[in-house]
Amino acid sequence: MEKKEKIKKVSIICAKGSLEDVYASLVMTNGALMEGIEANIFFTFFGLDAIRKNKMDKLHTGTVGNPAMEMPGGLPFPTILGSLPGVEAGVSAMMRKEMDKLDMPPVSEFLEIITASGGKVYACLLAIEMFKLKKEDLYDDLDGILTIGDFYQEAAGGQIIFT
């Protein structure tokens, strides 16, 4: 059997702001750090909601147009239901409840765990400018606001994973 080379570095790109997409990025980043892998997480476009102080712990599950969404019993979730008032909030609350059962921390705490473990947290300059955000709107322990070129420098020598 061929011996595989161990991954030494990963850079995770989080471009979506739904609860499930942000947690996928956070779990992958934290998991890498726990395995002794150097890890960066780069938030861009709607993924910035994960590091916006006023939104990070209030993310929602995407209910409209989510082909993987199921109703109890495994029936497909009709997209039209996701557009009804209160459905997205209810689904998001159920998702948070299930995450709480697994002791998954809120986004703000997850970011603290990542930075305390040596992970780097970056924001995309282009997206920051596009959404007219300021550094003070963002997670306090942000390691930087980067251009895409700067991000590639930080990612050099590692795997880039887009979630």
Structure description:
- The chain has 163 residues and is of the alpha/beta class.
- The chain has one domain: Hypothetical Protein Ychn, Chain: A, CATH 3.40.1260.
- Helix content is 36%, strand content 15%.
- It has six helices and five strands.
- The chain has a five-stranded parallel beta sheet, sandwiched between helices.
- Strand 1, helix 1 and strand 2 form a beta-alpha-beta unit.
- Helix 1 runs parallel beside helix 4.
- The longest helix is centred in the first third of the chain and has 16 residues.
- It is globular and about 45 Å long.
- 28% of the residues are buried.
Please name the CATH architecture.
Answer: 3-Layer(aba) Sandwich
Q: What does the main sheet amount to?
A: 5 strands, parallel
Tally of individual helices: 6
Per DSSP, what share of the residues sits in E-state strands of 2 or more residues?
5-15%
Q: Assembly type of the shown chains?
A: single chain
Segments where pLDDT lies below 50 for 5+ residues? none
CATH superfamily grouping: DsrEFH-like
CATH-defined topology: Hypothetical Protein Ychn, Chain: A
What is the string of helix and strand elements?
A: EHEHHHEHEHE
The overall average pLDDT, rounded, is 88
Radius of gyration: 17 Å
The structural class is alpha/beta
**Order of adjacent strands in the largest pleated sheet:** 4-3-2-1-5
Number of strands: 5
How would you sum up the global shape? globular
For the record, give the distance between the C-alpha atoms at the N and C termini, rounded to a whole number: 31 Å
Overall tally of structural domains: 1
Can you tell me the CATH class? Alpha Beta
Q: What is the percent of helical residues? A: 25-40%
